[in-house]
User: Which sequence fits this backbone?
């Protein structure tokens, strides 16, 4: 659903990037290896990559659409823990791809094509919360740290360029040793992160007062838009959409009390 943009700004970060690695716990309780770069460096890289994206890609001038996406992003980010309470910035890029991303440093980018699959504010919140889920779960940090450990002297540039989600994973696998690494290390890691971002994002949207059941509708729309064409699940960088829908549906019922409590407390977004 996104391409990681951090590779665009590596040339200014390499000289000071490498620091000690550490073991931490993700929001879902998973053990992570992080720390190849500091959070400050990640934030700076995210900001620079975002600025370059804005310089290179046209942004929508539609005031209504811009207000809509800012409203959803603001509603979601208000529910983040204090250490993630940046002044989150949003950009809406003119592109027909149903795509979105979030970056360290408090940046969210959406493509106008996302409206073709996210057809109401709750479905758009599912997209936004999922992408922010990657950031707060430290997936950028984890990807860089793990790939630096796997790349065995190929250099930090190659490692981070290879950390792009989705289509970029195949390129990374080629750099790191071919099909065995691709099937056994890089791609399963992507699926794990995608599943975790689903969990974190669905919880976050419910806390913000968006219906967590609408994440199911979003992925049903995604399947319809793709024509149902998918590679085998074990070779995919994302969970199989139908498996994903089953997991989202199973979690949604448990999150309804959170959603109802949020609404009762006044978290009633009216964005679109």
Assistant:
């Amino acid at each position: 659903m996104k391409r990681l943009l951090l590779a665009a700004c590596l040339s200014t970060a390499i000289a000071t990037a490498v620091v000690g690695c550490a073991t931490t716990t993700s929001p879902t309780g998973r053990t992570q290896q992080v720390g190849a770069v500091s959070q400050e460096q990640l934030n700076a890289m995210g900001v620079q990559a975002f600025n370059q994206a804005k310089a290179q890609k046209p942004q929508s001038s539609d005031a209504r659409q811009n207000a809509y996406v800012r409203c959803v992003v603001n509603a979601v980010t208000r529910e983040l823990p204090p250490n993630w309470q940046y002044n989150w910035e949003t950009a809406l890029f003119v592109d027909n791809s149903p795509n979105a991303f979030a970056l360290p440093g408090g940046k969210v980018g959406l493509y106008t094509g996302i409206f073709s699959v996210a057809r109401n504010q709750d479905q758009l919140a599912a997209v936004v919360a999922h992408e922010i889920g990657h950031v707060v779960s430290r997936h950028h940090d984890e990807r860089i740290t793990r790939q630096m450990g796997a790349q065995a002297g190929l250099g930090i540039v190659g490692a981070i360029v290879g950390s792009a989600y989705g289509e970029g994973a195949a390129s990374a696998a080629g750099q790191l040793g071919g099909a065995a690494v691709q099937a056994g290390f890089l791609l399963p890691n992507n699926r794990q992160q995608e599943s975790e971002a689903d969990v974190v994002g669905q919880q976050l949207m419910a806390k913000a007062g968006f219906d967590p059941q609408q994440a199911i509708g979003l992925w049903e729309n995604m399947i319809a838009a793709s024509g149902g064409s998918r590679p085998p699940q074990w070779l995919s960088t994302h969970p199989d959409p139908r498996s994903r829908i089953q997991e989202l549906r199973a979690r949604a019922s448990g999150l309804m009390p959170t959603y109802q409590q949020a609404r009762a407390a006044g978290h009633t977004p009216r964005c679109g």
Observations:
- DSSP finds nine helices and five strands in the chain.
- The first strand starts at residue 22 and ends at 25.
